[in-house]
Structures are given as C-alpha cells and as structure tokens.
Specification:
seven-stranded mixed sheet; FAD/NAD(P)-binding domain; binds flavin-adenine dinucleotide; single chain; globular; Guanine Nucleotide Dissociation Inhibitor, domain 2; 3 domains; 506 residues
Length: 506
C-alpha cells in the first residue's frame, strides 16, 4: 500500500504531536505515525490500583499565566489545545545532608527568590539580581534567533550580553557574576535535570530554564501529561490530520539526497514532501536510510554526540494523605553533596548515586488521588550505559534496591515516614525507558548540551544543516534540547520550516 501526504511525522512524542498539529493547522495534509497505541512517548500516564501516576513531568517551564503567557501557552492556544493546568507554588525545596548541608524552600517570583537567597547567603543579592537580568537578556536573544534568519549585526547591537555568554558553560558565568559559592550551589539545584557537568553545560540553556521556572512559575496538567498528549492529538484531527497507532517506521525512503517518505514495519509506504522524525538521528542513520544515501556528516555528528542521562523512577501510591504524613513540598531535591560535579560522578555508578528528586503530586494537584491517599514519585538520573553493566539475573534485585534507597533517604532527609503506608509501588529504569521510547541507552534527555553541540549552534544550524533534503528531526535530541517545553517548541518550529519548504516548492 502507498499513501501520499504533504507531511509525515514519525513518532507521537511531544515534538511529533506539536509538529503534526502545526502542519495540519497550516492546511498541509499530515499523517502522524506512532509505534505504540497511545500518544505522548514520555508524556503519558499509567494506573496501578486506585492511583493514576504521572510517569515523567515534574514541571513544565514556559507555560505562564493567562496574563503573562509563555511560549508554550502561546503555542497551545495557536493550535487550539485546551488543557487544565495548575501552578506549582514553590520553586523547590533543596536538602543537602551532611556537614556542609542545608534545607531551604525557595519561592517563585524573581524578587522573592532574590530575597530568600539573600537570607540564606548574605551578600548574594546583587549577583542573583544580575543573574536574572542576564537570563532575561538570553531569553530575548533566543526569541530573536528563533523568529527568522538572524542578522549578526543585530545580535552584536541588541543582544551583546547574550553574545558574551552564548558559548560559555554555566560555571564560569556564575563565577564572573561574583555569585558566592553557596548561592551558586542553590541556584544550581535544577542542574541535575540537565545532567551535564557544571563546567561544561551551556549557561544559555541553564539560565533560561531557571529564569522560566522562577519568573513565570512552573505548571503541571491536572490530569497528568497524558492529557496534554490527548489534547494535541485532538488538535491534529480537528485540523484535518490523521494519526496511525501501532505503526512503526522501519525505513526512511531516500533517493538522490532527498527523503520522499517512510516505510512502515508492515511494508506500507507513505510518500510525502517532508518527513519530520521524532526519533533520534542515531536511530535514523544506523540502518533506516539506504547505505549509499547515508551522509557521512550525519553519521559523524551522531557518533560525536554524547547521549544525555537516562532516568530511574519509583512511583508510590500511599494510603495516607500528605497532611497525615506531614508532607508540605511538591518538589524536594535531595543530595549528600552540594557540589554538582560530585553529584555528576555518582550518576556514572549504580551504587554511589545519591541525588534524587521526590515529588508529592497532591501538594499542587490536591484531587489527584482518592481522599486519604497520596502519590509520590522519586526520580534519579543515570549516565548512559550504567544499567547495561547488570546481568539479567541481577536486574530485579538492583531495581528494588534503588527504590528502597530512595525511600529510606527521603524519610531521613525530609523527616517523614512513608515506608509503612505503601499501597502501590512501581519502578521504571533506563531499561524501561529504552524499551518504551526506543531511545539509545534509554536516554530521556537527548544529547548533552556541550559547547559545540549546545542550544545555540543547534538553533543556528536548524535552517541550513540538512544533509538529506526533506528530512528534519524534532524532539529532546533537537535544536532546543530536552524537556517538555523545549520539545513542544522544537516540534512547532520544525513544522514551520517544513511548511516553508513546501510552500517554496523546494
Ligand atoms: C522520568 C522522566 C522525567 C522527566 N521530567 C521532566 C520534567 O520535569 N520537565 C521537563 O521539561 N522534561 C522532563 N522530562 C523530559 C521530557 O519528558 C522529554 O524531554 C520529552 O517528553 C521528550 O519528547 P520527544 O518529543 O523527544 O519524544 P519522546 O517522549 O522520546 O517520544 C518519542 C515517540 O516516538 C515514538 N517512536 C520512536 N521510534 C519510532 C518509530 N520508529 N516509529 C514510530 N514511532 C516511533 C516513541 O514510541 C515515542 O512515542 C522527563 C522525562 C522522563 C522520562
């Protein structure tokens, strides 16, 4: 069977859904193809007993309030996506155990944050204010870069602060801002979301994330991230697009340097003017394109990149309410060291990984579980390959050991007792994510945003660096790097580029 459309989108993760909704809305005939029977990829939900768990999303950045909308809210409203969203009230609680430790709740709102930081680290206010000013400049410059063909003269003239830090890692910029070490540690609390060493990961990316969370609060969907995926899927259909589930793309059809469609695992062909792939370039260039049509540059680039972190989650349904348990915080970041480079080293091991985040969904989503119960989930990051060291026979025991370690460490650090009221428990490891998402090594974060492969060079390359015409990638591995908001934006922007090429007849 051969079907012909303007755009085929391969994979219904956040970027695939946003891309397909956008091309359909622009009037292009669009087909979204997903190997599972539901949309969302990481953005989903699952049920155990009386509990519906959120598998991934802790916090959505860039959504904002109706009066102060962020780019994700703007994209959703442009696509006609309606989801009930809830504001995350505090930024985070950070607990570092041990002699150099601290236990702080940091608020949202830049002024509030600066005030709380000054209280925790006297003398830090000026550098924290300057951090947010710089982060605001970075956000404005990225808005300019994403809006069209950037003019270097405009960048030099209007975005000089951005140009100064554009290619620098976070560590040296925080040093240059004269931020006291403890304030740096506190502001780096979100760092493990990125999983790249402090001295390597892009200041642009990091500051943007902190700025967006603190200045406009984070948001979560009332009915788990599955609701956002369903609403995007509905938008695709409302705009005349089609969605095929249980259909895996096995080949990209390429001839004379041009991608003209895809082949599905069952042998059907879908011909299109543009293909948007939501899976990793590693996958595409390791057997999905004909060998004589596989550009060496793409293979080199895929090989040169470093895969980002994978995750481990323990999901807990408890038969007591947060009030009964004395839990007050939505997000608690727990560590035995304030040094993010030390945290990072632990992520390369199975047994010395002490960092994790514990979330209690009921705090910011009170009706999320039956009365008198609560939903908690702990998340740890692991470097690619760490779980590959395990023999199959060891897997179950290690998976349970990590769950126990997280639960015990949370009880000790936060001073609450949860282990005697667990009604449901479920775990997901890098192996689970590799199997479900089909990402290399179970990466949930695309590629590390290191200097040559940070957000800026990726955005700058979005328009030009295409070795196979008609084929674009969008996802956590894409130009905006990983994360919910990044992938929605990346999918949406990739759709605009694909539509422009179709319009120009290229
Ligand atoms: C545990 C966890 C916690 C996280 N926490 C946060 C957070 O708090 N905040 C945040 O912003 N981000 C968070 N993230 C990251 C965020 O979820 C991801 O960056 C984002 O969802 C990735 O979207 P994506 O578009 O790359 O698609 P993916 O989620 O990777 O989905 C890709 C889709 O493509 C499909 N597919 C793959 N290959 C094929 C094929 N050959 N044919 C057809 N379909 C195919 C897959 O089945 C899947 O549905 C978290 C992720 C995880 C796993």
């Amino acid at each position: 069977m051969v079907k012909t459309v303007d755009v085929v989108v391969a994979g219904a993760g956040n970027a695939g859904l946003a891309a397909a909704a956008a091309t359909a809305k622009m009037g292009l005939s669009t087909l979204l193809v997903e190997r599972h029977n539901i949309p969302g990829g990481s953005a989903s939900s699952f049920r155990r007993g009386r509990f519906e768990f959120e598998p991934s999303l802790h916090e959505l950045a860039g959504y904002g309030s109706p009066g102060n909308p962020g780019d994700v809210r703007d994209i959703f409203s442009d696509l006609g996506v309606n989801v009930e969203m809830l504001e995350v009230k505090d930024a985070f609680r950070t607990i570092v155990t041990g002699p150099e430790g601290y236990d702080l709740v940091m608020p949202v709102g830049i002024e509030n944050f600066v005030y709380a930081m000054e209280k925790a680290v006297p003398g830090s206010a000026e550098s924290t204010v300057n951090f947010f000013k710089l982060a605001g400049d970075v956000g404005r410059a990225l808005g300019y870069l994403s809006s069209g063909q950037p003019d270097p003269a405009v960048l030099q003239k209007d975005h000089i602060n951005f140009m100064k830090v554009a290619n620098l890692p976070a560590g040296p910029v925080l040093d240059a801002l004269n931020m006291p070490p403890k304030a740096q540690q506190i502001i780096m609390t979100y760092w493990p979301y990125m999983g790249t060493p402090r001295g390597q990961f892009s200041f642009v990316l990091y500051s943007l994330m902190v700025y967006r969370y603190i200045s406009m609060s984070a948001y979560i969907p009332k009915n788990r991230s599955h609701d956002m995926s369903l609403a995007l899927e509905q938008a695709i259909r409302d705009h005349g697009g089609e969605v095929w589930y249980n259909t895996e793309i096995s080949e990209l059809l390429v001839k004379d340097g041009r991608c003209y469609g895809v082949r599905t695992r069952d042998g059907s062909e879908i011909h299109s003017k543009q293909v948007i792939a939501n899976f990793y370039p590693d996958r595409a260039f390791a057997g999905m394109t004909p060998p004589n049509e596989t550009p060496k540059q793409e293979v080199k680039r895929a090989n040169a990149r470093t895969l980002g972190m994978s995750g481990y989650c323990v999901y807990l349904g408890l038969d007591k309410s947060p009030e009964e348990l004395g839990i007050k915080d939505y997000s608690v970041f727990i560590n035995t060291t304030p040094d993010s480079d030390e945290q990072q080293k632990g992520m390369y091991t199975l047994d010395n990984n002490d960092f994790f985040i514990m979330n209690c969904l009921n705090i910011d989503n009170p009706g999320c579980s039956p009365e008198g119960t609560s939903i908690l989930w702990g998340t740890q990051l692991f470097a690619p390959g760490v779980w590959d060291q395990l023999k199959p026979a060891e897997y179950k025991a290690v998976k349970n050991r990590v769950a126990k370690k997280i639960i015990t460490a949370y009880e000790r650090a936060a001073g609450v007792k949860i282990s005697d009221c667990i009604e449901e428990i479920s775990t997901a490891t890098p192996v689970t994510f590799a199997r479900y998402l089909d990402t290399p090594d179970g990466s949930i974060y695309g590629y590390h945003g290191v200097k040559w492969d940070a957000m800026l060079p990726r955005i700058m390359g979005m328009r030009g660096e295409q070795w196979i015409q008609g084929l674009r990638f969008a996802g956590g591995h894409g130009a905006r790097t990983m994360g919910y908001s990044s992938t929605y934006i990346n999918g949406y922007q990739t759709a605009q580029l694909a539509a422009q090429e179709i319009k120009e007849g290229r």
